[in-house]
Write a structure and sequence with these properties.
The protein is built from five helices and six strands. Strands 1-5-6-3-2-4 form a six-stranded antiparallel beta sheet, sandwiched between helices.
C-alpha cells in the first residue's frame, strides 16, 4: 500500500485518549522536548505491514502513567508514585500497552501504510537500532502536551520513520 504514514493532529490525539477514558482530553502543540537519561519515558513502536518501523510515540512518564491509570480508573496517586520513581509499575505498563495498541489508529488515513503497535520500551531500556534511528532522524516530528483530567499531564513526541514516507 502506498502513501505516507501521517502525523496525527491534536484533535486525533485528543479523540484517542478521550474515547478511551470517556472524558474530554485537552491536547495542544508544544516545543520539541529532549529525552533525559533515566527519565522513565516510554517509546511505543508501530511497524508497517512490511515489518519496518513506521512511527514511534515518545511519552514522558507523566503522560504514559496518566493514560494507563485513567484507562482502568486507578487512583491518581498511582500516577504520582510512577513519576517520582520514573518507572511504570507492571500494572500501569500493561494498561498503557493497551492504550498504545489502540493508538495505531492515529496513523491510519487515506493511502497510508497500515501500521500496528509492535512494542513498548521504557527509558533507560535500550532501543533496537531501527527504533533509535527514527529517534535520531525522523522524517517528521510533532510534539503535544496532553492533560488527562484528574490524572495529570505530560508531553508526547510523534515521530514518523523515513521509510514510512513512501514515494507515490
Amino acid at each position: 500500500m502506498g502513501g505516507n504514514c501521517g502525523i496525527p493532529g491534536a484533535e486525533a490525539v485528543a479523540r484517542l485518549f478521550g474515547d478511551l477514558i470517556g472524558k474530554d482530553v485537552p491536547v495542544e502543540r508544544c516545543k520539541a522536548f529532549a529525552l533525559a537519561p533515566r527519565s522513565g519515558a516510554t517509546a511505543a513502536v508501530f511497524h508497517t505491514e512490511h515489518k519496518k518501523v513506521g512511527a514511534v510515540l515518545i511519552l514522558e512518564i507523566g503522560a504514559s502513567a496518566a493514560a494507563g491509570a485513567a484507562l482502568t480508573s486507578m487512583p491518581a496517586t498511582a500516577v504520582e508514585e510512577q513519576v517520582v520513581d520514573a518507572k511504570l509499575s507492571a500494572t500501569l505498563l500493561e494498561n498503557f500497552r493497551e492504550v498504545m495498541n489502540i493508538g495505531a489508529q492515529l496513523f491510519q488515513g487515506t493511502n497510508a501504510p497500515r501500521v500496528a503497535f509492535s512494542g513498548l520500551y521504557q527509558n533507560p531500556e535500550p532501543l533496537p537500532a531501527d527504533v533509535a534511528a527514527v529517534l535520531s532522524r525522523p522524517a517528521a516530528r510533532i510534539d503535544y502536551k496532553v492533560t488527562i483530567p484528574g490524572y495529570g499531564s505530560g508531553r508526547i513526541a510523534v515521530l514518523i520513520a523515513p521509510q514510512a514516507v513512501a514515494v507515490a
